[in-house]
Amino acid sequence: MMSEYLLEMRGITKDFSGVKALDGIDLRVRPGECVGLCGENGAGKSTMMKVLSAVYPYGTWGGTILWEGRELRCASIRESEDVGIVIIHQELMLIPQLSVAENIFLGREPRALGGLIDFDRMIIEASKLLAGLRMGHINVAMPVSNYAGGEQQLIEIAKALSKNARLLILDEPTSSLTKSETAILLRLVQDLKARGTACVYISHKLEEIEEIADTVTVIRDGRYIGDAPMRDMTTGDIIRMMVGRDMSNLFPREEHPIGEVVFEAIGITCLDPENRERRRVDNVSFSLRKGEILGVAGLVGAGRTEMVSALFGAYRGPHSGEVRLDGKRISVRTPQEAVRQGLCMVPEDRKAHGIVPGLGVGYNITLSVLGDFTTAGLIDENREFSVIGEAIRRLRIKTASPVLPISNLSGGNQQKAVISKMLEPRPRVLILDEPTRGVDVGAKYEIYRLMFALVRDGMSIIMVSSELPEVMGISDRVLVIGEGELRGDFINDDTLTQERILTAAITPTRRAA
Amino acid sequence: MTETTSIAPGPDAIAAAQGERRRTLKLEHFKGAFARYKILALVVAIAIIWALFTELTQGDFLTARNLSNLLRQMAINGMVASGMVFVIISGEIDLSVGSLLGLTGGLAAIFDVTYHLPLFVNIPLVMLLGALVGAFNGYWVAFLRVPSFIVTLAGFLAFRGVVLGLTGGVTIAPVSSALIAVSQSYLPDVAGYALGVLVFAALAVSALRSRTKRAEYGLPVPPLGVDLGKLAVAAVVIAGFFAILDAYRGVPLPVLIVLVLLGLFTVMARRTVFGRRIYAVGGNLEATRLSGVNVQVVKLLVFMLMGAMAALAGIATTARLAAGSPSAGTGQELDAIAACIIGGTSMRGGAGTVFGALIGALIIATLDNGMSMLGVDTFWQMIVKGLILLLAVWLDVATSTRR
Ligand SMILES: Nc1ncnc2c1ncn2[C@@H]1O[C@H](COP(=O)(O)OP(=O)(O)OP(=O)(O)O)[C@@H](O)[C@H]1O
Ligand SMILES: [Mg+2]
Questions:
Q1: pLDDT of A316-329, one tens digit each?
Q2: For ligand 1, atom 28, which residue shows the shortest CA distance?
Q3: CB distance A409 to ligand 1 below 6 Å
């Protein structure tokens, strides 16, 4: 009996040492169809896909997977790839030093006589593959590290396709992509659908789901909520299914008093460590008031992350400029100095710069304030854990226990823990670099609410974000950075539009504002 | 795990599938259990090796005298390993400790023989010098960013050169009886038993404390019986330990030092800011730095601690040999690293315990001692130790639940 479905997952269960992560989830995919998989942070989306792609091999979970009507029991990722299931993980897995072609054919390099790698053929085939995916501009002989995060993501997809994928799993593929890169990626997925490749698409950006998915499956807390054709649904419906209630307003903007200037950055300039001629940040100056939320917009690669790293003493490379707090010049040569003077930063790259994977969630949260808990040199764990417990409750971090290694948390919950960590020193100025990356709608809402609570208590916030609606939804003022220059400084009122921000971002200035 | 409702294939297929799943689960379960109780597994391994050697030596291995000797042999490696374990946890390596041990041991001998420094000056002075040399290593690693492998490889060569230069390549003897006593004295029975009771009390208190903690943090608390059982086993082991040592001459001073280090360093690792930061630095250096931690200082201090431990081991070696030998400590760095690794310290950094490292040192000492008693050729001893190291790491990799 041939099934209508390419893939059917039935009643999937999975537990991690007694804690249920998946509790009877169903997922069906027709040939050539794109299924959007939606759910809050920690709902079990990534886990579900790891079950499907045999990252968790057969036998370590319950339920059944049917592939073209026949039961599938893969013991390894290799086996699942052999039937045509290919997963692109939440974190990039390319090897930066190898060339694009080498990455694409890693482990399956074409061989010439005598077993040596046939580089010519490899390069030709890789170029053909990329050309077919409208990525002909990429030079496959160049090291992957020459390409930005977005292009790397596309290369990752090309790599997946070269394995003859019949079902492609994309787990939050666009969380580090720019708008235009996202558009390319979505078009690519459309092309694939047209060619008959099915896909499962996970994203917290519901407008992408709306654009690309034929069917939507929603899960919540490890349980199956339902599925429906996308044309019968609105994003509002999806959100309701995800969080179990209506959410009319995604940006809980609140009035709050704004005080005097507390923080000033003057003439921040960062040079590229490899090429000192190039200025990654070019003479940027701005000020920040007490209780103000300052959004920093701009295209990816414009130098926003470099600029805020320099403010925090974390920029690795030659840089200059002056930072003032309360009108007094302060020295921020290291993050340690910055934290001590009331400046904290939540970095952009969670995996590389945010978490210490082997440590428990709690120990991650208290990492920068451990000294506060000591009596006679020993850490008072009672006090430490009461603080941890409070932090976990405040941001509703979903974890089985405070001592669970943070690497076991879902992406969004890791992000919340990293934010908690940088709130512990009670900074006066908080820098958030892409704070809601990989965070679900409900949790985003909570993070925004938290931000408003913080500024009402007198904190000031600098928020770098690539999501214009977010920048415009909650900032009091918006800085626009383009090619390392400050290209706009706008009060966020009714006259500010996305167009004005985008135009400013691409319009060079002669003189820093 | 719930079984799911019927599926397309027939009942036989389902039964087969479920059987298969159960088997895989069992294996996974076993792997998890092994990873969790690794230290326990190591203790069992020691018991098996001891039984084997006892059998092969017709009981000579398991005499109070031999076990006392074995522990004394282990003590020096134990001192080095308890410093090394923090170096490895912080994501670095120290290849210079063998040479540093030789250097500090030589200095201790010179201070004693030539300058007649009293012990209470000599020991702190040598340990301070060891810490300073460690600081030198640490400075190169942490502040000048030369990989520790290279820095300490240079030290491995250079420190040995310094010893040879200082001593002119000859043994420095005779050292004073006070210094010899560091290695040769014993803690008499009453004090030994009191120590045993103390250790047990500490264990019992920490076990109970951890129960209440676990309950507080919402973690599953093992049934009281399990913990009491564990404590009972610990009581037997501790009582046996001190009874055997007392049956010979008492607790050897070097062994006592190692026990004190175990206590101190375990508390340091878990309950002090410095200790906790060592794990964070090894787990993700960049994230720790961005959290406002001065990671360079943490690394510097770790190397200083290592230097002080190497010096302590140097003093103990000179005391044991009753002379300052310019070749003392040759190859010691490898034994210490092996002890850490066998005891479950991760080479990637971020994980490991002092207790594990000492268990590793005990296994190595057991192999040395037992095989020597059996008259096994040195070359075989080396081969066996190499294989055991490989086996230990492979077991660790094969059973680690993390991918
Ligand atoms: N190895 C593990 N050990 C323990 N718990 C785990 C492990 N892996 C995942 N979990 C738990 O399983 C749940 C589901 O996690 P999963 O990563 O699938 O969520 P997600 O839906 O992908 O979330 P996000 O949108 O944040 O990426 C989480 O609560 C997580 O803490
Ligand atoms: Mg996920």
A1: 889 999 999 999 99
A2: A42
A3: yes
Domain count, chain A: 3
Instruction: Indicate which CATH number applies to the domain containing A134.
Output: 3.40.50.300
Same domain, A239 and A386: no
For chain B, report the end-to-end CA distance as a whole number of angstroms.
22
Pocket probe mutation, ligand 1, options A15, A17, A46, A225, max atoms within 8 Å of Cβ: A46
Farthest CA pair distance, chain B: 89
Q: Does some domain include residue A443? A: yes
B200 alpha carbon, distance to own chain's centre: 20
Helix (H) or strand (E) holding B317: helix B295-321
Q: Are residues A403 and A499 in the same domain?
A: no
Q: How many angstroms is it from B170 CA to the middle of ligand 2? A: 65
Take atom 25 of ligand 1 and give the residue whose Cα is closest: A41
- Residue boundaries of the structural domains of chain B: 40-185+252-398
B145 in contact with chain A, both atoms CB, cutoff 8 A:
no
Question: Stretch A255-267: mean pLDDT, rounded?
Answer: 92
**Distance, CA A57 to ligand 2 centroid (Å)?**
18
**Any idea what DSSP says for residue A252?**
-
Q: Of A243, A270, A291, which closes a domain?
A: A243
Task: Tell me the chain A residues in contact with residue B351 when contact means C-beta distances shorter than 8 Å.
Answer: 358
Three state DSSP letters for A474-493 = HCCEEEEEECCEEEEEEECC
CA distance A342 to A321: 18
Q: Are residues A222 and A266 in the same domain?
A: no
- How confident is the model at residue B31, as a pLDDT? 52
Is A180 found in the same domain as A78? yes
Alpha-carbon span B209 to B203, nearest angstrom = 10
* Separation in Å, CA A411 to CA A256, A375, B226: 31, 35, 36
Same domain, A439 and A396: no
Mean pLDDT, chain B, whole residue set = 86
Q: Give the number of A-B residue pairs with CB atoms closer than 8 Å.
A: 132
**C-alpha pair distances (Å), A264 with each of A321, A325, B246:** 11, 7, 71
Q: Which two tokens stand for residue A141?
A: 């002989």
Q: Note whether A385 contacts B217, CB cutoff 8 Å.
A: yes
Which of A192, A211, A243 is the C-terminal boundary of a domain?
A243
A203 DSSP assignment: -
pLDDT at B151: 97
Residue A304 lies in a domain: yes
Task: Please give the Cα distance from A101 to A123 (Å, whole number).
Answer: 6
Residues forming beta bridges with residue B187, ordered by sequence position:
B251
Q: For B225-268, how does the pLDDT look when each residue is reduced to its tens digit (9 = 90+)?
A: 888 888 888 888 888 888 888 888 888 999 999 999 999 999 99
Using a CB-CB cut-off of 8 Å, the residues of chain B touching A334 are 289, 294
In a domain, A465, yes or no: yes
Q: Which of B9, B284, B294 sits opposite A355 (nearest CB)?
A: B284
Degrees (nearest 5) of the Cα angle A310, A312, A317?
35
Q: Is residue A90 part of a domain?
A: yes
Question: What is the interface pTM, i.e. ipTM, of the complex?
Answer: 0.81
Q: Which H, E and C letters describe A83-120, residue by residue?
A: HCEEEECCCCCCCCCCEHHHHHCCCCCCECHHHCECHH
Same-domain check for residues A396 and A437: no
- Residues A350-368 have pLDDT tens digits of 888 999 998 999 999 999 9
pLDDT digit string, tens, across residues B302-323: 999 999 999 999 999 999 999 9
The reply to whether A333 and A238 lie within a common domain is no
> Which of B290, B301, B401, B403 should be substituted to probe chain A, the one whose Cβ sees the most A Cβ atoms within 10 Å?
B290
The reply to whether CATH 1.10.3470 applies to domain B40-185+252-398 is yes
If you measure from the C-alpha of residue A42 to the centroid of ligand 2, how many angstroms do you get, rounded to a whole number? 7
Which of the four pLDDT bands, split at 50, 70 and 90, describes residue B42?
Answer: confident
Domain that holds residue A363: 354-421
Regarding whether A175 and A37 lie in a shared domain, the answer is yes
Q: Check if the beta carbon of residue B316 is closer than 8 Å to that of residue B76.
A: yes
